[in-house]
From TrEMBL:
It is an enzyme of class 1 (oxidoreductase). It comes from Pannus brasiliensis CCIBt3594. This is Glucose 1-dehydrogenase. One of its GO terms (molecular function) is glucose 1-dehydrogenase [NAD(P)+] activity. Its EC number is 1.1.1.47. Keywords: Oxidoreductase. NCBIfam families: PRK07231.1. Belongs to the short-chain dehydrogenases/reductases (SDR) family.
Length: 265
């Protein structure tokens, strides 16, 4: 397995894309720190799946995948730092950070409230920034290489009317990866973004049940389907592995062709 002996922290891993990433990294041999804010039952399900993989592995207990759950709000920097420290304390070290936690708020630009702007930017960008900082401090202190993988969005490139703060946060994440790639490269730390398009997750349940809106969206996707969480998780596992050691500062779009084919209806 590609990630034997590695420890990975996946933020927002109680459901959807984050849960799929946690399970996939475990299937490649990593020990997983599962972060959640408001879905403890989802975190327990992720933990169950991760530990089930560990119990089926033909590895010693010290090397078999296992999970550890931590509650933390990524919008609070002190909780972010405590989350990273908890991961290090529990497993002894941390190698991989997947900044997956994210949120969005719908409103026309001229009606966006300061509280909603702050909520989105704090979780999507500020939390990711300081989680990466905390991991970096640990890696430099212990003189070890590491991987930072941000789950961005096609909206780091593509305008999304009525979701301005979300687009700003993902645009910032794009530059964060580019800047930190230069700054952290000499320490053997890579950072990349994975930018999903329309993915079939619980957050899109309303869309999935609206045949008219779903049909209009599918017209914009050359592959004519929504993505699966596993489509994202597979790429994250590659970027987290030694096979991707020479890749940094890049965004990898996983959208079925949506970005270059999108047009307003």
């Amino acid at each position: 397995m590609k990630l034997d002996g590695k420890v990975a922290l996946v933020t927002g891993s109680s459901q959807g894309i984050g849960q799929a990433i946690a399970v996939k990294l475990a299937s490649e041999g990593a020990k997983i720190v599962i972060d959640y804010r408001s879905h403890p039952e989802g975190a327990e399900e992720t933990l169950r799946q991760v530990n089930e993989i560990g119990s089926q592995c033909h590895l010693s207990k010290d090397h078999a995948p296992e999970g550890y759950t931590v509650k933390a709000d990524l919008g609070d920097v002190e909780q972010v730092r405590a989350l990273v420290n908890a991961a290090i304390q529990h497993f002894g070290h941390l190698d991989i950070l997947v900044n997956n936690a994210g949120m969005e708020r719908h409103a026309p630009f001229w009606e966006v409230r300061e509280a909603d702007y702050d909520a989105v930017l704090n979780v999507n960008l500020k939390g990711a920034f300081f989680a990466a900082q905390a991991l970096t401090q640990h890696l430099i202190e212990t003189e070890r290489p590491g991987k930072i993988i941000n789950i961005s969005s096609v909206h780091e490139e593509l305008p999304f009317p009525n979701f301005a703060p979300y687009c700003l946060s993902k645009g910032g994440m794009k530059m964060m990866a580019r800047d930190l790639a230069v700054e952290l490269g000499p320490y053997g730390i890579t950072i990349n973004n994975v930018a999903p398009g329309a993915i079939e997750t619980p957050i899109n349940t309303k869309l999935l049940n609206d045949a008219e809106k779903l049909g209009a969206l599918l017209q914009n996707i050359p592959l004519n389907r929504l993505g699966k969480s596993e489509d994202i998780a597979t790429l994250v596992a590659f970027l987290a592995s030694d096979e991707a050691n020479y890749i940094t500062g890049s965004t990898f779009v996983v959208d079925g062709g949506l970005l270059w084919n999108y047009h307003e209806q």
